[in-house]
Write a structure and sequence with these properties.
The protein is of the alpha+beta class and about 160 residues long. It has one domain (about 1-135): Nuclear Transport Factor 2, Chain: A. Helix content is about 25%, strand content about 45%. It contains three helices and six strands. It has helices at about 1-15, 25-30, 50-70; strands spanning about 35-45, 45-50, 75-90, 90-100, 105-120, 125-135. The protein has a six-stranded mixed beta sheet with strand order 2-1-6-5-4-3. The model has no long low-confidence stretch (mean pLDDT about 85).
């Protein structure tokens, strides 16, 4: 089970490491996702819903503009809270905090929740869904994370 958790987390961190690593191209990021799957992002208290592929295209456009404007580096790095990884058979979830850096300076912080599927025939983990929020770096990190491991044991009525 630990090797599966490591494989799931490696998929997520490899995906994050592609952001900004090749300038404005996110072609490498597409290797880790199912592009027609969902993405739901909160930006400035606004919900943006699209496919992961559409989100990557929109992000590429923003990266191109930033690099053309003189930015020399961009990256997203994991941080707390998390990571937390849950796996059952061929489905997994990862909860992970991140920092978004531009030219080495933190410009945003956030939390991602990734849904992953183990795809056939290659039997590798791919990101099949993404929910994301973010806040300004001068805002305090959330003071707590609510966790619930309660299971519903009621009837199907």
């Amino acid at each position: 089970m630990e090797s599966e958790k490591a494989a799931v987390l490696k998929t997520v961190t490899a995906f994050l490491s592609t952001i900004g690593s090749n300038g404005s191209s996110l072609q490498d990021a597409r290797n880790y996702v199912l592009t027609d799957s969902f993405a739901a992002l909160f930006r400035s208290n606004t919900l943006i819903q699209s496919t992961i592929g559409e989100t990557l295209t929109r992000f590429e456009e923003g990266l191109a503009s930033m690099f053309a404007g003189g930015v020399s580096s961009m990256e997203e790095i994991p941080c707390s809270p998390g990571p937390e990884v849950w796996i059952y058979d061929s489905i997994a979830a990862v909860w992970l905090g991140y920092k978004h850096l531009v030219d080495g300076k933190v410009v945003k912080k956030g939390v991602d929740c990734f849904a992953l599927l183990k795809t056939s025939p290659e039997e590798r983990w791919r990101i099949a869904g993404l929910a994301d929020n973010q806040w300004e770096p001068d805002q305090p990190d959330p003071s707590h994370v609510i966790r619930s491991h309660a299971w519903y044991h009621g009837s199907n009525q």
